[in-house]
Amino acid sequence: MDCPKKSFLFMISCIILLLNYNNGGFVHATTNIGLNYGLLGDNLPPPSQVINLYKSLGITSIRIFDTNTDVLNAFRGNRDIGVIVGVKNEDLAALAVSENAVNTWFMTNIEPYLADVNITFITVGNEVIPGDIGPHVLPVMQSLTNLVKSRSLPILISTTVAMTNLGQSYPPSSGEFTSQAREQLVPVLKFLSQTTTPILVNIYPYFAYASDPSNILLDYAIFNTDAVVVQDGPLGYSNMFDVIFDAFVWAMEKEGVKDLPMVVSETGWPSAGNGNLTTPEIASIYNGNFVKHVGSGKGTPKRPNSSIHGFLFATFNENQKPAGTEQNFGLYYPTDLKPIYKLF
Ligand SMILES: *[C@@H]1O[C@H](CO)[C@@H](O)[C@H](O)[C@H]1NC(C)=O
Ligand SMILES: *[C@@H]1O[C@H](CO)[C@@H](O)[C@H](O)[C@H]1NC(C)=O
Ligand SMILES: *[C@@H]1O[C@H](CO)[C@@H](O)[C@H](O)[C@H]1NC(C)=O
């Protein structure tokens, strides 16, 4: 979510239940929970302090959006924390031209940290598929994959995609990709399938809810009910996150991509910026329940035996993002590292 979010509308028919904020309890970080570490603020603490925060929370996976030198230098020697780094969207066109260009990028941006930093994934672009530069993703992924394989490096090569790839998402079993996604995403998914490398997906029930708050049940959007709200054949859903996740699984299956793991590279809920839909209380319930969902080890109704790995967006409120909700996804205030609400 480096760029403004497009809101996407899920056609969801709903029952309105009473709002029920009874679930903001204490939750512990689990090893399947990571945090996004966005850097679009002019008041962020130095990376060394941020690493201490992660250690105090027991967070062992983080994601940055590029290969920021200050951050990666600070991670030297902290190999117990896995770091997802990214190829910047604006670099993709030049890198797609040749394997040599990619090798040079790697020598400059990754090689210097290999010995000291636990780089787990390189994401090739953030939410560029579907879109104008989407076609550059696959060639860059292929070059990077060749490179890490030839050197037996334990780094996975993937990309992060938004749910704008879904043309249909409700009910989950009718999930299918848009025609542009079919052109740009499906070849990427087939490539990832060859090595069972996860696709990284950004899933934001908040944007679906905010696009139609009078018709979508808040408790369903924030995992705050155990009641089945959506029945899809034999599968019952009580939360919107699982519906969106499984719609993507169904859409992949319809393209012949079965059993490809999905990692949730971003999810979250803003604590301000859109009136009473974005309060610290609601954000705390959503994020706290997401942590519990992941910590339960349970998957989604369609993939009940695959536990979810996910990264909350984001560590800090970022004041250089567009005004409004975009600046308010953080769990912590950047200036004093105090929590905006209790989560971990
Ligand atoms: C690197 O990070 C991953 C993900 O957090 C973790 O599973 C792995 O144990 C870490 N590697 C080392 C050497 O600690
Ligand atoms: C927000 O306020 C409106 C108008 O008072 C109300 O109808 C709605 O239920 C409120 N939503 C939440 C999530 O509190
Ligand atoms: C999940 O695991 C259970 C118990 O091993 C098994 O019966 C079931 O078929 C599995 N479900 C799926 C969708 O793989």
TrEMBL record:
Keywords linked to the UniProt accession: Glycosidase, Hydrolase, Signal
Enzyme Commission identifier(s): 3.2.1.39
Signal peptide positions on this chain: 1-29
Catalytic reaction list: Hydrolysis of (1->3)-beta-D-glucosidic linkages in (1->3)-beta-D-glucans
Gene Ontology biological process terms in this record: carbohydrate metabolic process
GO molecular-function terms, A-Z: glucan endo-1,3-beta-D-glucosidase activity
Keyword set includes Cell inner membrane: no
Pfam families in the cross-refs: Glyco_hydro_17
Homology family: Belongs to the glycosyl hydrolase 17 family.
Record-given protein name: glucan endo-1,3-beta-D-glucosidase
Organism listed in the record: Eutrema salsugineum
